[in-house]
Specification:
- 28% of the residues lie in helices and 29% in strands.
- The protein is elongated and about 100 Å long.
- 20% of the residues are buried.
- InterPro entries: Autophagy-rel_prot_27 (IPR018939), Man6P_isomerase_rcpt-bd_dom_sf (IPR009011), MRH_dom (IPR044865).
């Protein structure tokens, strides 16, 4: 009888392992984003956060009778509640107390998105915020508040940013731009032109010093040719309308 019971227990474990579907695991990148292990998709919550010191959601009434303010990723201040991720108050006119901060945030699995868990720095309570993938243009905050059974705070946010890659832009991969490649080719060609030309002039023994450089006479006279060309263009344009030949410059 004991053997039969153990056999049934092992069989149940194997069946549940074969057919049970665990929530997708999202590995933390930073306090605002995570990457799913199954398909490599990224959930980025940073576009939701306000960075001006205010909260994304302010004084939203919950079932436990408190008003909650919440801002993901970026700390905010609300009256005497400072550097917070979440604050609460009993009424719109009462004092504000800290519920969670950004010091210790973990990403966890969720059936349709991700779940952020804020661990308390001291003697506070755990705060969980489930981000649900919903194709809404405006995020919706659903505060359940404090659960007296589990002794933790529970909240939900419906947003498109909880969907795979919805608010994520892949960073530009490092590499050399086309312009940089062209400049490298240009300077390499100049180097080869001067080096090979100088070696050729030295080997043939036709010149010495700077004269070993290829086309030495041309490059020495090149600045003067540029100057003459500019003067000719300027005089033709505005000064000497009668000048029609380059030889007269």
């Amino acid at each position: 009888m004991l053997f039969k019971s153990r056999f049934h227990l092992v069989l149940c474990v194997l069946v549940s392992g074969a057919y049970g579907v665990d929530p997708r695991q999202c590995n933390k990148i930073d306090s605002c984003s995570c990457k799913f292990a199954d398909n490599g998709a990224v959930v980025n919550l940073r576009p939701l956060a306000k960075s001006n010191g205010a909260s994304l959601f302010r004084d939203i009434y919950a079932k436990d009778g408190y008003y909650y303010s919440y801002n993901p990723c970026v700390p905010f201040d609300e009256e005497e509640c400072h550097s917070a991720s979440m604050c609460k108050r009993l009424s719109t006119n009462s004092s504000v107390s800290l519920v969670a901060d950004q010091n210790n945030v973990n990403f966890g699995p969720n059936e349709n998105g991700v779940q952020l868990t804020y661990l308390p720095s001291g003697l506070g309570n755990i705060v969980t915020v489930s981000f649900k993938c919903v194709q809404n243009s405006k995020p919706l905050f659903i505060p359940y508040g404090f659960d007296n059974v589990t002794k933790q705070y529970n909240f939900e946010v419906e947003t498109m940013c909880a969907c795979d890659n919805a608010c994520y832009t892949a960073p530009e991969t490092g590499g050399i731009s086309t312009g940089s490649i062209l400049l490298i080719i240009f300077f390499v060609m100049i180097f080869l032109y001067l080096t090979i030309g100088a070696i050729n002039g030295k080997v043939n023994g036709k010149s010495s010093g700077l004269q070993v450089l290829p086309h030495y006479e041309f490059w020495v006279g090149f600045p003067g040719l540029v100057k003459d060309g500019c003067l000719f263009a300027v005089r033709c344009a505005c000064c000497s309308t009668g000048v029609t030949s380059y030889d007269k410059v």
